[in-house]
Design a protein that fits this description.
mainly alpha, 2 strands, 128 residues
Length: 128
């Protein structure tokens, strides 16, 4: 009987007449340099977002409520970048986005209630 077994190394995979080099444990077609570049771009965007937050903290946008809203918008964008790319939610199914959307909706609602309740014009502060 003839032995027809093929020997492959851990770093090379032979498929359909082509040899592809892969590091052990990585999926096919995984280009590390593209992933690193993507993470560096997101990191740069997060640094810019942090600088924008510091810059915006020195500007009076016309009231405490507007200043808080500007800070929360910047923070939400930064959180979306972290969740989307570093936590890999950008590749997840619609269910994850639904839960994330509901979380954002309730967060905005709770922030609105907090800002509304701290306003001196709110009926919470009216005395009978």
């Amino acid at each position: 009987m003839a032995n027809h077994s093929h020997s492959t190394s851990a770093a090379a995979v032979h498929t359909h007449g082509h040899t592809h080099d892969h590091a052990p444990g990585h999926g096919h077609g995984h280009d590390v340099s593209k992933e690193v570049r993507k993470y560096l771009i997101v990191f740069g965007a997060l640094l810019i977002g942090t600088l924008l937050t510091v810059w915006a903290s020195f500007i009076d946008f016309g009231g405490a409520s507007i200043n808080i809203i500007v800070a929360l918008v910047i923070a939400t964008i930064k959180a979306a970048l972290v969740a989307g790319f570093f936590m890999h939610l950008i590749d997840e199914r619609k269910m994850i986005y639904g839960v994330l959307g509901a979380t954002v909706f309730f967060f905005i609602g709770l922030m609105y209630l907090t800002l509304w309740s701290t306003s001196p014009d709110s009926f919470i502060h009216m005395r009978h």
